[in-house]
Amino acid sequence: MRGSGKLAAGVLAGVLLGSGTAAAAGDPVRAAVGDLVGEGGFPGAVAQVRNGEAVSRFGAGYANQATREAAGPHHRFRIASNTKAFVATVVLQLAGEGKLSLDDPIERRLPGVVRGPGCEPEKITVRMLLNHTSGVHDPLDPHFFDPYLVQGNRAHIITPSEVIRRSLADRPLFPPGRGVEYSNTGYLLLGKVIEKITRDDVREEIQRRILDPLELGRTYFPLWSPFLRGPHLHGYDMDGKDMTVFSPSYDWTAGAMVSTVDDLATFHRALLAGRLLAPAQQAELKRLVPYSELGAYGAGVETLNLPCAGGAKTVWGNTGAGPGFYSVSMSTEDGSKQLVLALNVYDLAADVHGGQRVPKPPMPAVMAALC
Prior knowledge:
Elements: H1 6-13, H2 28-36, E1 44-51, E2 54-64, E3 69-70, E4 77-78, H3 83-96, H4 106-109, H5 126-130, H6 146-149, H7 160-167, H8 184-198, H9 202-214, H10 252-255, E5 258-259, H11 261-272, H12 279-285, E6 289-292, E7 295-297, E8 302-308, E9 311-322, E10 325-332, E11 337-343, H13 348-353, H14 363-370
Antiparallel strand pairs: 1-2, 1-11, 2-3, 4-5, 6-7, 7-8, 8-9, 9-10, 10-11
Helix pairs in contact: 2-14, 3-8, 3-9, 3-12
């Protein structure tokens, strides 16, 4: 399984050394976002930018190329791997309540589920699933997305259990805890853990624990429906094909959620400021495992090291990529600056088979907002 976030970070981080902030009179962030739209290759973009307590929200280009509807910050979009931070928050809350330990082996929590050549479920801990050190990878079958991309059945359903089974058909990437590799399947297993412990739908747990307390009324978690509710961005591939209608069934707790820039900004601000977790679990959220010199993974969040003009700056949050949508939700370490940016091109076929996934990396906009 691809397209939930592993390559989103790559699109962002892989161009760091060749990027610079946009220089423009007035508002350099708006200018940099504007450069991404139209000739920049993205039909539309929506953003929320915060500097201290000053917040601006804006859109550029089109939410829908066919109707020429203007993109605005009220439009929903698929947040892809930004979902992982919501799921990790629930897991960490359960740990704080004493209902699980991050050192619990997955075999204890999901007996008999992690089975396959080379699997060591008794050595894979909940913490390893959270920070991508379990060795569990996504399905390696290059035809995994054929029902959607080749056969054209965008309503096709692949259950999380089927994704897990197909992921475990091949040997792990490395022994548990002996490497770092982004894993969507690891977060599907965490979703199963949440449901096993709470005896509740994971979506209801996220609603009760996060969405309702923070009043995130425009955020929701679809299970299998390929359609987006209410005003929303349309997402496209690199050829301009509309990819908006696409079942998120395979992505579930790895990347199925839908939100707006305001809701996502509110969530990440609350999470990173320690409003959703007790101190011990907040420390676990921010316990980092470097994946390269460019950044590191925490528990459901990640860091990126920006080469700002005044010196390197570490930013926190998530990136997300899936069919038609690419997003960045990042804050400075001290929380004083924040950017949530959603763009409406991501090419899943290129992600699977190689090729250009987005028209232009958004790093200039990220640096303009956060440096």
